[in-house]
Amino acid sequence: MTSIAKPPVRHPGLVRNELGLSVRDYEGSMSTLCAGCGHDSVTAALVQAAWELALPPHRAAKMSGIGCSSKTTAYFMRQSHGFNSVHGRMPSVTTGASAANRDLTYIGISGDGDSLSIGLGQLSHAIRRNVRMLYVIDNNGVYGLTKGQFSASADVGSTSKKGETNVQPPIDPVLLALTLGATFVARSFSGDKAQLVPILKAGLLHNGMALIDVISPCVTFNDHEGSTKSYKFTREHEVEISAADFVPLRREITAPAAEAGVTSVTMHDGSMVRFRQTHDGYDPTSRESAYAHVRACQLRHEVATGLLFIDERGSDMHAMANTVSTPLVDLPYEQLCPGNAALQKLMEKYR
Amino acid sequence: MHVSMPTDVRNPQYYHKVVDCQWACPAHTNVPEYLRLIAQGRFTESYLLNRESNVFPGILGRTCDRPCEPACRRGRIDGKPVAICRLKRVAADLRDDITPYLPTAPTVRNGKRIALVGAGPSALTVANDLLPIGYGVVIHERISRAGGLMRFNIPAFRLPESVLDEETQCIIDMGAEVRYNTPVHSLKALLSEGYDAVFVGSGAPKGKELDIPGRWDDGARGSIHIGIEWLGSVHFGHIEKIGARVLIIGVGNTAMDCCRTSRRLGGIDTKVVARRSRPYFKASPWELDDAEEEGIDIVENHAPKRFVIENGTLVGMEFERLEWSESDGKQVSRVLDTVILPCDEVILAIGQDNAFPWIERDIGIAFDRWEMPVVDRITMQSSLPGVFFGGDAAWGPQNIIWAVEHGHQAAISIHQYCHGASVADRPPQGMHLASTKMGMHSWAYSNDFNPSPRSKMSHTELVERFSKISVEVELGFTPEQTATEVQRCLNCDIETHFTASLCIECDACVDVCPVSCLTIAPPADSEAELRTRLSAPAVNLEQALYLSPALPQTKRLMVKDEDLCLHCGLCAERCPTAAWDMAKFALVLPYAFGSSGINLPATV
Questions:
Q1: Which residue of A150, A208, A333, B93 shows the fewest CB atoms closer than 10 Å?
Q2: Are B123 and B199 in contact, with CB atoms under 8 Å apart?
Q3: What is the pTM for the complete model shown?
Q4: First and final C-alpha spacing in chain B
Q5: Alpha-carbon distance values, A246 to A129, A137, A201, B311 (Å)
Q6: Mean pLDDT by 10-residue block, N- to C-terminus, for chain B (604 residues)?
Q7: Whose CA is closest to A219, among A115, A140, A117, A111?
Q8: Are B102-205+354-418 and B207-351 in the same CATH fold?
Q9: CA B546, CA A70: separation in Å to the nearest integer?
């Protein structure tokens, strides 16, 4: 929390993107989270990613539920749309919003409480529907807003600030998403922007739900010895098993395509994700291989990070439901509401 | 150079350099601290803090060359520096009586007697520093008043006589013996009077000549004046008017004083004529502005060729119109044509020379090929031990604030010399560093950024200022202007002080910094390489990079580019472990009488 507003002064050397915006134009209001919160770094990474992609702020919608993580939608892209929903209901509200206006970029920010406890069902079904959105879970293993109880992602054996040991097994959102058929699954760390920013960029352009589990330490309740989601523990146990270098469409690709250990996946808009192999035999396009590797790391008490799985051929919600390609707001009234005669004709089909 | 070497912030010079204004000031005045005192309405304390380093706050608050202002970090933020100089004047104008706080000479003297030649800013500074520690000081002054150049070369409309009198007299009142109307004709004779040391602060009293055709013609001689001599004659009332059409040759600050004085004495058509174009003018930009506001024409690229004399009177001057271009990195000129500018009188303000006809060349003082004494840059001592130089007498015309600093250094040397210590053995500078943290988001300074533009000084109406030469032009800042202007200061002395061992590398400081000063970076091979890898590339190579020791978790470095730091304290507010702190830095300067801080009231 900060007592003064961020001064309006900017570094004169700030680069502008093709919309003419500097990175600071993607900022929001001042964070009121604890000093040193991992969530603020995730926010900064989102600001950076959106600026690098030259995302028009007015064409994005920030969606969230309840929790420390869900507050952060106020701290970036102040000119974007937003919806702060009921606890755990962000995936459903986003589904509805996306159904109505498929052209916006949806950025959902949630936490381990919001998504893995109260909203677990909502998350699961949004994955199945493959709603086209970036879904960030700021995962710190505790309920920070209610003084640090263990959350559903706390590891067995991890201790609370007061020394209690967690005995219930954790829900791993990455393994969950892989089982439920997610088409973009990644894990990263708030303290490693070099890795997080390219993953966020790739996720923002993915054709479907891009789920990113971000280990984001709670500096107040879960950054102590005995925590498995602290800055120190994560730095010591992080294993990057698949490095993604996002290459947007507009940039000329100068790196040799056939470089050893590098594979490329073309995104639906023509941009590319290049994978640098950091782990023997890892294939980010194979769901089975990804699951096995992440599970193996988990057993070794390692935190597997990177863009772990991607399937760019999957159908998103609109393709599955065969919806109209125009956002509803842009449809002429006669088409959106064709009148009683058309309704009766439709009803006739179901008799 | 391998830059994994952490920055040593215990060396006073590192944080001192961050305080751009203080670093640029020859006397290293603690600007941010005195601005904060003004902000609190503590004008007396602010004045005394100023006086400690620059001795003449009221005079300098009106006349200083302000090296601090071009250096001011605020200028790099929104284009205009804090109006430091004129705020100094506010403190001087609004202070209470300072006599109770001035140092006094001890009743028992130390038995040493020092002769000072001249009663200008450098010599008076020497007296100011030596009198409180028991020295006997004898000042030999050519004219009947103290102040030197400050008195007879700065017109009264810029510096009221009362201000000059008060600030010079309070030094003399500490117990200096002043011999007015006593020019020194022989240094040899002075030395033979048995002084323990001699300080020469006699200025650069000789204006340069312009030896071109017509200069010495009978009809012209009386209408051509040397700038500084003419200003002196005006000051003493020997000259009270001038012709209507006046040409000022030269475009330094003396030329500005001459043209504005000329305008007040009847020179309703006064022109300043310069050889070069505006970017190369020696006068300070604000002095040019003030002159132009008074209707003075400034003519560029005109080189004097001859004085035009008709029927035994000066009627004009012929100039070559020049065009400048660059060749081999040098500016070269080409003559386009010649023009004659009509005039009644001419004032030459093309520079000053030193003149030491009174120093015998056989007494052990070495002179260089420009007939200037050889003076040590640090000790101010000449080649004759015990004889020191300072002010314009040392290396030619500089400015008042440099003269003051020369005086401080010479006083230290004299003190060392009189006690048998080596003058080259300089007392060290020191520093204080103390946290300003008062509580959650609460600091002992105002860290909120004030986006206001620089306040504009209000001036006396033109009609009124031309009515009398002593009408002061600048009116000072109003209380409202003062309140805003002090808040424009970024408090660069409140340093971002980092403790690497506490850092958990959460990135909070890097993310929040509004001007992208901070980066957590892997060690680099060179500083140049590191500069390219920062959050915002560091382009201002004059400004230092701070490098922390290796951080505990990843062994990377915290790097700070000092260039544009607003000292807003957000890094420290966002730091969960207080690895960043906002700590007040105070430079401790050595003086002959001890060190800075000892003569201030306890509240400062």
A1: A333
A2: yes
A3: 0.89
A4: 41
A5: 25, 20, 7, 87
A6: 75 97 97 96 95 96 94 94 95 94 92 96 97 96 94 92 96 96 96 96 90 88 92 91 95 94 95 94 92 94 94 93 90 92 95 90 93 95 97 92 98 97 95 93 92 93 91 92 96 97 96 94 89 86 94 95 95 95 96 87 68
A7: A140
A8: yes
A9: 36
The residue written with tokens 């006593």 in the block is B182
B441: nearest CA partner in chain A: A3
Q: Decide if A31 contacts A40 (C-beta within 8 A).
A: yes
Q: Å from A307 to nearest chain B CA?
A: 22
CA distance A233 to chain B (A): 10
A–B interface: beta-carbon pairs under 8 A: 103
Strands ordered across the beta sheet of B387-389: B177-179, B136-140, B113-117, B197-200, B387-389
Q: Are A262 and A276 in contact (CB under 8 A)?
A: yes
CATH of domain B102-205+354-418: 3.50.50.60
Per domain, the residue ranges of chain B are 102-205+354-418, 207-351
Give the H/E segment covering residue B285: helix B285-293
Nearest CA distance, B513 vs chain A (angstrom): 8
Mean pLDDT of chain B: 93
Are the beta carbons of B506 and A217 separated by less than 8 Å?
yes
| CA–CA gap between residue B534 and residue B521 (Å, rounded) | 8
Q: Which residues contact A211 (CB under 8 A, 6 or more apart)?
A: A127, A135, A137, A173, A174, A177, A182, A184, A185, A186
How is residue B280 annotated by DSSP? G
Contact yes or no for B511 and A36 at CB 8 A = no
* CA–CA distances in Å: residue B419 to residues B245, B297, B380, B513: 58, 56, 17, 52
pLDDT of residue A11: 86
| Model pLDDT for residues A181-218, shown as the tens digit of each residue | 999 999 999 999 989 999 999 999 999 999 999 999 99
- Helix, strand, coil shares of chain A, percent, nearest 5, are 35, 20, 45
Contact B490, B447 (CB under 8 A): no
Judge contact between A186 and A137, C-beta under 8 A: no
| DSSP assignment string, A38-100 | HHHHHHHHHHHHHHHTT--GGGEEEEE-SSHHHHGGGGB-TTSEEEE-STT-HHHHHHHHHHH
**C-alpha separations of B550 from B502, B504, B524, B545, B579 in Å:** 11, 12, 12, 15, 13
β-strand partners of B561: B545
Q: What is the CATH number of domain B207-351?
A: 3.50.50.60
Both tokens assigned to A215: 């280990």
What per-residue confidence (pLDDT) applies to B294? Answer: 94
Residue B101 structure tokens:
């706080």
CA distance readout (Å), A213 to A49, A135, A287, B555: 16, 8, 17, 26
- Name every chain B residue with its beta carbon within 8 A of the beta carbon of A34: 576
Using the 8-state DSSP alphabet, how is residue B262 labeled? Answer: H
Q: With 0-12 CB in 10 A as exposed, 13-18 as middle and 19+ as buried, what is A90? A: buried
pLDDT digits (tens, 9 = 90+) for B44-77: 999 999 999 999 999 999 999 999 999 999 999 9
**ipTM of this model?**
0.88
Find the length of chain A. Answer: 351
CATH code for the part of the protein at A23-321:
3.40.50.970
Which candidate, A96, A203, A195, A213, places its Cα nearest to that of A153?
A: A213
Q: Which two tokens stand for residue B139?
A: 């000042």
User: What is the rounded CA–CA span in Å between residue A277 and residue A133?
Assistant: 26
| CA proximity to B140, closest of B188, B168, B173, B176 | B176
Which residue in this structure is represented by tokens 């002095």? B287
| 8 Å CB contact of B576 and A38 | no
**Rounded CA gap, B245 and B262, in Å?**
10
